[in-house]
Write a structure and sequence with these properties.
- The relative contact order is 0.14.
- The protein is an alpha/beta fold.
- It has eleven helices and twelve strands.
- The strands form two sheets. An eight-stranded mixed beta sheet has the order 6-7-8-3-9-10-12-11, with helices on both faces. A four-stranded antiparallel beta sheet has the order 2-1-4-5.
- Helix 5 (172-184) runs parallel beside helix 6 (202-219).
- The chain has a single domain, classed as Rossmann fold (3-Layer(aba) Sandwich), CATH 3.40.50.
- The protein has helices at residues 64-71, 99-108, 126-136, 142-155, 172-184, 202-219, 230-236, 254-259, 264-271, 278-283, 314-318; strands spanning 15-28, 33-48, 53-57, 78-85, 91-93, 109-112, 190-194, 222-226, 239-244, 247-253, 324-327, 330-332.
- Helix content is 31%, strand content 23%.
Length: 346
């Protein structure tokens, strides 16, 4: 288990994840016995403080969405600890709660999904979609429910008189506003935003990001922001965790990570961030990783990134690097972190 990156803080973190693992069995043979495991998340440590935005980035298949779903206990294969500080000051381990015990916590932890088209039931009106969490949790019914749905629609920039309409009557950006309203109608404290703007046009993305920042200031929200787009994460997140093959390979404040990465994988990701100025774009050399992401059911020995790393040595094949502090508040899982001359975003 790695060191707690925010150990020593006076304020207790809102969320503390310790040695989180999510392994799915690979079954084979006539009796469908487990022949191995897919290590979707493989020993992640992470903390989230109240009021901050923590970004989780990485390639598709790195485990970032599984990490977000684990926080909500959307599946039962969670191993490790997920300590959540409730509004009343008590701390609970979400990984060990039963479904009944999880219910009050799920009012405080909500999720914004990636695709606003498939995440909304086309047969329900906005009143039903946004009001459903209020009904299920016994928060409001009748006219009170209608009033709260109307108030939430106003907060996300939609007209309350449209609550009787169906999702097909709205654009992609408006549908995502509906998804945000559904997630926030219970007034949660922690929101997991899973690729919340990746399915939207560029111009609409900026509107939704501004909306989320305004709502955070107004409602006192904390975000775990999952994305593959590092340019978006740079704009909205205070800290960034970089994942590769189920593990966090770098964790740092956003400004420090983008200016001086401490892991070769982070450097490669940053080199792919587009530059708005074509002249700078041509002058910049992108780092293209060789090969494919290894099989999570059969990861390489030692450092999982070594098969694609241009700095790999025999040590990388023999020993797994631990996430360690290489600069103030900057952590890297690389044997040579601090020794390599890595480029950030200039």
């Amino acid at each position: 288990m790695t060191a707690d990156p925010v150990a020593g803080q006076v304020e207790r973190p809102l969320l503390t994840i310790k040695d989180l693992k999510v392994h799915y069995p690979v079954r084979a043979g006539a009796f469908r016995r487990a022949a191995g495991h897919i290590r979707a998340v493989d020993g992640v440590d992470l903390t989230v403080r109240r009021g901050e935005n923590v970004g989780v980035v990485g390639e598709s298949g790195c485990g970032k969405t599984t990490l977000g779903l684990s926080v909500l206990r959307a599946h039962d294969r969670v191993r490790g600890e997920i300590h959540y500080l409730r509004a009343d000051g008590t701390s609970v381990d979400l990984a060990r709660l039963s479904r009944k015990e999880l219910k009050p916590c799920r009012r405080e932890i909500r999720m914004i999904f990636q695709d606003p088209h498939s995440s909304l039931n086309p047969r329900l009106t906005l009143l039903d979609i946004i009001g459903e969490p209020l009904k299920v949790n016994g928060v409001a019914t009748g006219q009170e429910l209608v009033d709260r749905v109307g108030e939430m629609l106003r907060k996300v920039g939609l007209r309350p008189e449209h609550m009787r309409r169906y999702p097909h009557a709205f654009s992609g950006g408006e549908r995502q506003r509906i998804s945000i309203a559904r997630a926030l109608v219970l007034q949660p404290r922690l929101v997991v935003a899973d690729e919340a703007v990746s399915a939207l046009d560029v111009s609409v993305r900026a509107q939704i990001l501004n909306l989320l920042q305004d709502l955070q200031d107004e409602l006192g929200l904390t975000f775990l922001f999952i994305s593959h787009d590092l340019s978006i994460v740079e704009c909205v997140c205070d800290r960034v965790a970089v994942m590769y093959l189920g593990r966090v390979v770098e964790l740092a404040d956003t400004a420090a990570l983008y200016a001086q990465p401490a892991h070769p994988y982070t450097e490669a990701l940053l080199s792919a961030v587009p530059k708005p100025d074509p002249r700078l774009r041509r002058a910049r050399q992108r780092i293209v990783l060789q090969g494919d992401v290894p099989d999570p059911a059969n990861p390489p020995s030692g450092c999982a990134f070594r098969t694609r790393c241009r700095f790999a040595t025999q040590l990388c094949a023999e020993r797994t690097p631990e996430l360690r502090e290489v600069a103030p508040k900057q952590y890297s899982a690389c044997h040579y972190a601090g020794e390599l001359a890595l480029r950030g975003i200039q």
